[in-house]
């Protein structure tokens, strides 16, 4: 399936199903280097160029992935520690060891990049865990902190998400024998950092939006969400600038939550689409959602770690009972033909600095022997070749979905973040309760180019929808520079043709 521009495309079944407008595609403007770290079972990181090249990663920009095991397995005695082979993609490792190995290579990759380069690290799922560990270590290094404007992190479906990430929910379980040895429970560092960071979280993604309280229905829904909201179709070709997306900024960190339909109803929604009966499935959503939401605290500060509770607070039960009449009324309206779009309340940011419970996440040192280095260079060459071969698939997927990333042209002389909008509504956002670290003036000029996450943060009341792409045609230019160049070329061509035609016309007039 592909979740593209508000439509789930079931490729294998050949059916389409309506989905909410709040979905993910972060359009970025890159001048520098982007490093992609793939999810579990994608050791070469091919998901990043396959799903996001040409949107999250603009075409023609410097981009590479960090190969690492990317496994959720068991440590096999002797085999898991074979010199030269234990660090290659897909080698059997536990999740805890896999992210440690990946963090070592990502840290080395960043350290080998010139200090004045602009670097953005994009992590998906387990790749975000790798990047979180490195970000926490970089925040302790004065060299990186002094040049914090040069680094940016984008986390997609992060199990370490402060409020919702399954690994953060069970921080106190990190000392449990066996469980704590296999799974890296607890965040590796504070939720905020000196570096610009953006979290993208699908509602009901069981890895990034696990229930805060024990609720059998909410947990079952989150498990279904692992399949439909995290793994497949997950965050592929989706828009973050939908009007019902909830954006909250705390310090240098931005949290974007994307409302979604209940994953529990996804198996019904697909066959219902075959007979045009989606509204009957949608009508079940509001009432069922009331009981699922009893397991969450949606108004909690997204930067604060909220651990899992075994008892649902009485106020959550009362809140659900009070919401039932309106939910039934909404269901009847949906049956009557009203369009249904899920929404979320705005979180309330605390005025105090969050005290993030942190657990130790050591970074596995990179091997330095000639054999280990030779194997690593071969793996990186293979990763680069596979990444280049995978990129064209991004255009195919975008064509199938009939949508591309929203783009806003940005003048090179103005490096401020421009807004991108596709609707006439303004996204929900929360004022910053804690001031972000002051940025240097140099970062606001074109002499210090950087990767720009272009998302819908515009305060204007009206917006112009981005034109939808037509299959078989190129997408709109990414920057005004390209547009201006094309315009200038056309004008020059017209001028040249006019000059060639004028003498002939005058000669013809004399002859007549």
TrEMBL record:
<feature type="compositionally biased region" description="Basic and acidic residues">
    <location>
        <begin position="453"/>
        <end position="462"/>
    </location>
</feature>
<feature type="compositionally biased region" description="Basic and acidic residues">
    <location>
        <begin position="471"/>
        <end position="480"/>
    </location>
</feature>
<feature type="domain" description="PE-PPE">
    <location>
        <begin position="65"/>
        <end position="297"/>
    </location>
</feature>
<feature type="region of interest" description="Disordered">
    <location>
        <begin position="405"/>
        <end position="512"/>
    </location>
</feature>
<protein>
    <submittedName>
        <fullName>PE/PPE family protein</fullName>
    </submittedName>
</protein>
<dbReference type="InterPro" id="IPR029058">
    <property type="entry name" value="AB_hydrolase_fold"/>
</dbReference>
<feature type="compositionally biased region" description="Basic and acidic residues">
    <location>
        <begin position="488"/>
        <end position="501"/>
    </location>
</feature>
<feature type="region of interest" description="Disordered">
    <location>
        <begin position="349"/>
        <end position="371"/>
    </location>
</feature>
<feature type="compositionally biased region" description="Basic residues">
    <location>
        <begin position="502"/>
        <end position="512"/>
    </location>
</feature>
<dbReference type="Pfam" id="PF08237">
    <property type="entry name" value="PE-PPE"/>
</dbReference>
<dbReference type="InterPro" id="IPR013228">
    <property type="entry name" value="PE-PPE_C"/>
</dbReference>
